Amino acid sequence: MAATVRDVAKLANVSLGTVSRYLNGYQLREDNRLKVEQAIQASGFKENMLAQAVRRNRSMMIGVIIPQYRAVFFMAITTILEQIFEQKNYSLLLCNYENDRHRLQQKLRFAKERLVDGLIVFPSYADAGSLPILEEFAAEDIPVVFIDQLLPGFETDSVIVDNAHASFRAVEQLIFNKHTRIAIVNGSPDVYVYRERLRGYYDAMRTYNLPVESGWVKEGSFIEPGEYVMIESLFDLPQPPTAIYATNYFATIGTVLALHELRLNIPHDVSVIGFDRFDPIDVIEPPLTLVEQPLERMAQTAADLLLQRMRGDHKDFPQVVTLNTKMVMRESVRAL
């Protein structure tokens, strides 16, 4: 009886998916490639003509899974990734999971079924439910690189920024300008990035022995205009803040709009430090002091790691690369 794919997998001690990927022309880790090739030779397995043609002619594809299309940060990095991978003759399969954990699992399954060569994920809303499908990627030699955060329980290469330190420095800048009543407009506490940025805020306030009033911490997506009311409520407090630190692009825009609605002047009435610098934000007057993320380095580092793993090079796996942000000092902070 002729040997089957199952026989090859059993002899090589790898998964059926790994043998399938080899037969479809995908790059395996070097040790797995050797085991599969030796098992094929030992078992006498013969590929059919169609499988051989697929191996020779298949297209190369990278999956990129992002939390939402309308978030400028994710799309900016994705645009850079596409430029990088196009130069290597890879196409992009772009998926959006709309900040939904269950939808993320569906998109991971979709990318795997499309036989991507490698996968880049922004796992902002990932949880334990995503682990089984991610483990399938690992078992079948499909490299996965995370951007923007880690996922406990799954070891893979990741590219993140110094979120807590970036927040510490932003708040410290306000403190150096004699502000003691500092509010934070933050993203969802369910997301690692925003937990880290909030931690940096608290660390700075604690380091300089400054109290934090519970009403000074505002959390939300700040995409919908109705959420700006949360920011406006800061100024109903008995001790309203003299400064606001906004921890993402939408929070920054929401803060500016809320202050405009209240007819409060930046920086005369309230100092502001925002997060992320994209072209539209530069039209705001006065120009905002911002924390700027290294978007090009994040994309290039993630692409380099993925390409390295796809070549079968697993040296120093897993790598967690932490990149530095920078402060762009402009006119939205006033010394008291």
TrEMBL record:
Pfam families: LacI (PF00356), Peripla_BP_3 (PF13377)
Source organism, top-level taxon: Bacteria
GO terms assigned for molecular function: DNA-binding transcription factor activity; transcription cis-regulatory region binding
Ranges where the HTH lacI-type domain occurs: 3-56
CDD domains xrefs: HTH_LacI, PBP1_LacI_sugar_binding-like
Keyword terms, alphabetized: DNA-binding, Repressor, Transcription, Transcription regulation
Alphabetized InterPro entries for the sequence: HTH_LacI, LacI/GalR-like_sensor, Lambda_DNA-bd_dom_sf, Peripla_BP_I
SUPFAM superfamilies for the chain: lambda repressor-like DNA-binding domains, Periplasmic binding protein-like I
Classification via SMART domains: HTH_LACI
Protein name: Transcriptional regulator, LacI family
Organism: Candidatus Moduliflexus flocculans
